Amino acid sequence: MSYNGALFDSDTTRVEVCCWNCNHSVTLRRGDVKADLDRHDFERRAICSQCQTGWPQTTKFPRRKPTSM
User: Fold this and answer.
1) DSSP per residue over 35-59, as a string?
2) Potential cystine with 19: which of 24, 52, 66, 68 (Cβ 3.0-4.6 Å)?
3) Kind of pairing, strands 12-18 and 25-29?
4) What pLDDT score does 35 carry?
């Protein structure tokens, strides 16, 4: 998976966002945020809704590869 700066690139189906302070986590899906949102910009601006800590950890999950029979 290549990293091009976008929070959602062509291979990403969801992004897990986790607060490093209290471990509160949220799953973002395509359509939950602007399509061209920059990953660094999102991390810089995001604030945990539970403890108000900034700079969450983000993990991108790719689409499943199609399987053929």
Assistant:
1) TT-BHHHHHHH-B-TTT--BS-EEE
2) 24
3) antiparallel
4) 82
